[in-house]
UniProtKB/TrEMBL annotation:
Catalytically driven reaction(s): ATP + (deoxyribonucleotide)n-3'-hydroxyl + 5'-phospho-(deoxyribonucleotide)m = (deoxyribonucleotide)n+m + AMP + diphosphate
Keywords: ATP-binding, Cell cycle, Cell division, DNA damage, DNA recombination, DNA repair, DNA replication, Ligase, Nucleotide-binding
Keyword Nucleotidyltransferase set for record: no
Xref: Pfam families: DNA_ligase_A_C, DNA_ligase_A_M, DNA_ligase_A_N
InterPro entries, per the entry: ATP-dep_DNA_ligase (IPR050191), DNA_ligase_ATP-dep (IPR000977), DNA_ligase_ATP-dep_C (IPR012309), DNA_ligase_ATP-dep_cent (IPR012310), DNA_ligase_ATP-dep_CS (IPR016059), DNA_ligase_ATP-dep_N (IPR012308), DNA_ligase_N_sf (IPR036599), NA-bd_OB-fold (IPR012340)
Stated name of the protein: DNA ligase
ATP-dependent DNA ligase family profile domain sequence ranges: 375-512
EC number(s) from the headed UniProt entry: 6.5.1.1
Family recorded in the similarity comment: Belongs to the ATP-dependent DNA ligase family.
Molecular-function annotations in GO: ligase activity
Length: 642
């Protein structure tokens, strides 16, 4: 239950004098969150933390919030927290004077460098008491660290980490190291943090909640409403730098008016559900109006134009790709109508054969340089296929049904040869017509179709949601499980025979956002060319770690690869079907209490550079694939390695 009042606790009172939030206060909250799995309890601990911060120093709330979600800035600014394991080990050695061998041995047995750092500090004698850390100091140092490059960067980084570690007390070293690794994994999902933020803001302001005697039920309803408002605003404007000051300044009702979506701040894209048959589409949409579009096989590109004429291209993950696509940027003026002054478009950038006016397969696009692209050096041409318009001339279109958004799209832009096209569409709801359109899409080097609800309120654009109002139909997978999976590489086995100098097979995992764990799903050794294997070896060898991470869910009789990796690389993988397995742990507890799901006959398709490890296929999706497979009794035999 949320308590409406809060007082400054003893140790924070001292900091009140300095207007700084103690790092110890944050770490205490982390400890409490880590000790429970109850979402409500975690929310309440965060609310108490934020309330104390607001009392101490409202201007410190933003940094505190970033520390809770372990980020340094909005995603599109591209500053990353992750510091390599070897750096961290060196810093622990130099700040504690402990022997590196002992540190590595303890790490191998715990899988958690944070705990190793805390224990190492604990066993250290203390001659003098260093000054306590503040959230501001830690946050700023982490920010500085992420920007260090060039000469002597290794030494500079270790020195900075060292200086923080020396000041750590109690559990601070544990959480500091985990923050530096890039992930806390103590149940602080961003949605929970958003709820807590909203609640603490409401509770901190004088208003009905504080003055009148509202029932607990009414208070909880008011807090839930506030959380819904903040989450909805965040979906359209994923930028805490704008949201937090507005929340502090205005009432919860008024603040959305000061946080409108705008070009320059990318939205998390709407995602689709896979389907296994065309009849599934008809079942889903029944007598509703829907539309089919080609599903282009390229890279998702959210294109923005600001009223000042500046333009940007963002990836599926809100990464700024403007430097990667100077050719898109330079031709933008050709396809924007003169009356269009600002916009956000949802598009696919696709490799293009100019001579034959044809789409080229994704493999061609993937050969394009990803960094420092100069327009004059570009060998692979791209065109833009626009399928949605989210913002136009100062107005958000998110709430409009697709039918109206499409009209706006078509009136504000024009197709220009070899540069910009509207996604090809077909609005018949007849199954034979859909089948023909699907075949045409494949002839045109597309992956299949996107089928979208067309009219009514539900046909709005739902940022960051995998919505059932968008269905994807991939021709290749109609006979299989309906879709490929995107899985994280967490280990590898040395090759034999022709593959001796590279890794010959790999251990893959899916991600469970609830538990924040990577769960093993299969061993894969098929689908790789020799060149692929060499590329994977080179891409992965820098990410080898001493031991499996504490957040790798491996089961009681785990598959043991020769080397373990940090969870960084995501691969698209196809399989014949899924089966229950005692050795793999995907979706454990969802279809069986102790066994997981594994993939049968997995085959490598491609690297997914546009996806981070936490965007990989979730255990919930794996479970859905399992239940939806054509003949679910088929896969229930014993586990099969490839
Ligand atoms: P998901 O987005 O479901 O996680 P994914 O990133 O692996 O999956 P796909 O399964 O290939 O991608 O399907 C969705 C992607 O299809 C979109 O993210 C977008 O890049 C692409 N796409 C191509 N054509 C369209 C279209 N007409 N409408 C929407 N998306 C399209």
């Amino acid at each position: 239950m949320i308590s409406v009042t809060t007082t400054l606790t003893g140790f924070s009172f001292i900091y009140f004098l300095y207007s700084r939030i103690p790092y110890a206060m944050l770490c205490k909250t982390f400890e409490r969150c880590e000790a429970t799995t109850k979402r409500l309890a975690i929310t309440e601990y965060l609310v108490q933390l934020f309330l104390q911060a607001i009392k101490l120093t409202p201007s410190g709330l933003l940094e505190l919030l970033y520390m809770c979600i372990n980020k340094l800035c909005p995603d599109y600014e591209g500053l990353e927290m992750g510091v390599g394991e070897s750096f961290l080990i060196k810093a622990i050695v130099s700040s504690t004077g402990r022997n590196i061998k002992n540190i590595k041995a303890e790490y191998r047995s715990t899988g958690d460098l944070g705990t190793v750092a805390m224990n190492s500090k604990g066993s250290q004698g203390t001659l003098s008491m260093p000054k306590p850390l503040t959230v501001h100091q830690v946050f700023q140092t982490l920010k500085d660290l992420s920007q260090i490059t060039g000469n002597q960067s290794q030494k500079k980084k270790i020195d900075k980490i060292n200086s923080l570690l020396v000041q750590c007390r109690g559990s601070e070293a544990k959480y500091l190291i985990r923050q530096l690794e890039g992930k806390l994994r103590i149940g602080l999902a961003e949605q929970t943090v958003l709820s807590a933020l909203a609640q603490s803001i409401v509770l901190s302001k004088p208003g009905k909640l504080q003055t009148s005697k509202l029932s607990q039920e009414k208070i909880e309803q008011a807090l839930a409403d506030a959380a819904a408002i903040v989450k909805s605003v965040y979906n359209q404007l994923p930028c805490y730098d704008m949201i937090v000051p507005a929340l502090l300044e205005y009432s919860i009702k008024d603040f959305p008016d000061h946080c409108n979506m705008r070009p320059g701040i990318p939205l998390k894209p709407m995602l689709a559900h896979p389907t296994k048959s065309l009849t599934e589409i008809l079942d889903r949409f029944e007598d509703r109006k829907f539309t089919c579009e080609f599903k282009y096989d390229g890279e998702r590109a959210q294109i923005h134009l600001l009223p000042n004429g500046k333009s940007m291209v963002y990836s599926r993950n809100s990464e700024n790709m403007s430097d990667r696509y100077p050719d898109i940027m330079s031709k933008l003026a050709n396809w924007v109508m003169p009356t269009t002054s600002s916009f956000i478009l949802d598009c696919e950038a696709v490799a293009w054969d100019k001579e034959n006016k044809q789409i080229l397969p994704f493999q061609v696009l993937s050969t394009r340089k990803r960094k420092d692209v100069k327009e004059e050096d570009i060998k692979v041409q791209v065109v833009v296929f626009a399928f949605d318009c989210l913002y136009l001339n100062g107005e958000s279109l998110l709430r409009l049904p697709l039918e109206e958004r499409r009209e706006k799209l078509r009136s504000a832009f024009k197709e220009t040869e070899n540069e910009f096209y509207f996604a090809r569409q077909m609005d018949s709801n007849n199954i034979d017509d859909i089948q023909v359109f699907l075949d045409v899409s494949i002839e045109n080097n597309c992956e299949g179709l996107m089928v979208k609800l067309f009219d009514g309120e539900e046909a709005s654009y739902e940022p960051s949601k995998r919505s059932r109002n968008w269905l994807k139909v991939k021709k290749d997978y109609l006979s299989g499980i309906g879709d490929s999976m995107d899985l994280v590489v967490i280990g590898a086995f040395y090759g034999r025979g022709k593959r001796t100098s590279v890794y010959g097979a790999f251990l893959l995992a899916c991600y469970d956002p609830e538990t924040e764990e990577y769960q093993t799903i299969c061993k894969i050794g098929t689908g790789f060319s020799e060149e692929d294997l060499l590329n994977h070896y080179n891409a992965l060898k820098g990410h080898v770690i001493e031991a499996p991470k504490r957040f790798y869910c491996l089961g009681e009789n785990p598959v043991k690869p020769d080397v373990w990796f940090e969870p960084v690389k995501v691969w698209e993988v196809l399989c014949a079907d899924l089966s229950i397995s005692p050795r793999y742990m995907a979706a454990v507890g969802k279809v069986d209490a102790s066994k997981g799901i594994s993939l049968r006959f997995p085959r490598f398709i491609r690297v997914r550079d546009d996806k981070g490890p936490e965007d990989s296929t979730s255990s919930e999706q794996v479970m859905t694939f399992y239940y939806n497979q054509a003949n679910s009794s088929k896969g229930k035999g014993d586990d099969m390695d490839y």
